[in-house]
Amino acid sequence: MLGSLIEERNKVIGIKQTTKALNQDRVKVLFISEDAEKHLVEHIEQIAKEKDIETIYVDSMKDLGKACGISVGAAVAAILK
């Protein structure tokens, strides 16, 4: 699933954009980096759990950023509906 993220056009990357998409019920699959600071992502995890959204945990922010096609790490990303 992570490998297909780079080809996915309908995605958001980062905490602000992902939170906004979650609140608008636009997220199909959520990706969270295991090494992201917990206090930054716990709110996003909670929203996803409440809305029963599939959540995939990625080993590192570097790996998630790379999978998204960006040259920096990413704490969270999401594929949109």
3D shape: globular
Reading off the top of the CATH hierarchy, the class is best stated as Alpha Beta
* Helix content bin: 25-40%
The CATH homologous superfamily name equals: Ribosomal protein L30/S12
* Total helical segments: 3
Question: Nutshell version of this structure?
Answer:
This protein has helices at 15-23, 38-50, 61-67, and strands at residues 11-13, 27-33, 54-58, 76-80. The protein has 81 residues and is α+β, with helices and mostly antiparallel strands. Strands 1-4-2-3 form a four-stranded mixed β-sheet.
What is the element layout, followed by pairings?
Layout: E1 11-13, H1 15-23, E2 27-33, H2 38-50, E3 54-58, H3 61-67, E4 76-80
Parallel strand pairs: 2-3
Antiparallel strand pairs: 1-4, 2-4
Helix pairs in contact: 1-2
